[in-house]
Amino acid sequence: MRVYTLGRFRVEIAGAPLRSGSKPQRKPLELLKVLVALGGESVAAEQIAESLWPDAEADHAYSALTTTLSRLRKRIGHGSLRLQDGRPTLESAPTPPGGTCLLGMKRGITRRA
């Protein structure tokens, strides 16, 4: 998975753009954007819920987060997003020679091989 945030936000899976499907859902992509903005590594559920559902009660926000995480994992592949102690982390893959990849602020703005 590659996530590009400079310019227009886009996601590629196995070199192809992420498709919206017949019924596009915005929240999974919003979740991906929040994960990237918060560093992409071991992000607290509270931070995500506050970003995506600021007016929701904690129980409702957590339920919505669980559903949205599941939908995102289905779209980008289960191996691209792992949960550890209830904290999502985006998995990075090696950048191919000559490629540029942006996965999160903690991993650096760009990596060139």
Q: What do you see in this structure?
A:
With 113 residues, the chain is an alpha+beta fold. The chain has a single domain, classed as Arc Repressor Mutant, subunit A (Orthogonal Bundle), CATH 1.10.10. Helix content is 35%, strand content 19%. The protein has helices at 26-37, 45-52, 58-76, and strands at 2-4, 10-13, 16-17, 81-84, 87-90, 100-101, 111-112. The strands form three sheets. Strands 1-2-3 form a three-stranded antiparallel beta sheet, with no helix packed on it. A two-stranded antiparallel ribbon has the order 4-5. The relative contact order is 0.20. The model is unreliable at 94-113 (pLDDT under 50).
**CATH fold description:** Arc Repressor Mutant, subunit A
CATH architecture assignment name: Orthogonal Bundle
- Order of SSEs, N→C? EEEHHHEEEE
Provide a count of the helices. 3
Radius of gyration: 14 Å
Global morphology = globular
Average of the residue pLDDT scores: 79
Q: Provide the CATH superfamily.
A: Winged helix-like DNA-binding domain superfamily/Winged helix DNA-binding domain
Reported for the largest beta sheet, the result is:
3 strands, antiparallel
Tally of separate domains? 1
* Share of residues in strands: 15-25%
Low-confidence stretches: 94-113
How far apart, in Å, are the first and last alpha carbons? 16 Å
Major sheet strand order: 1-2-3
Question: What structural class do the secondary elements suggest?
Answer: alpha+beta
State the helical fraction: 25-40%
Count of individual beta strands: 7
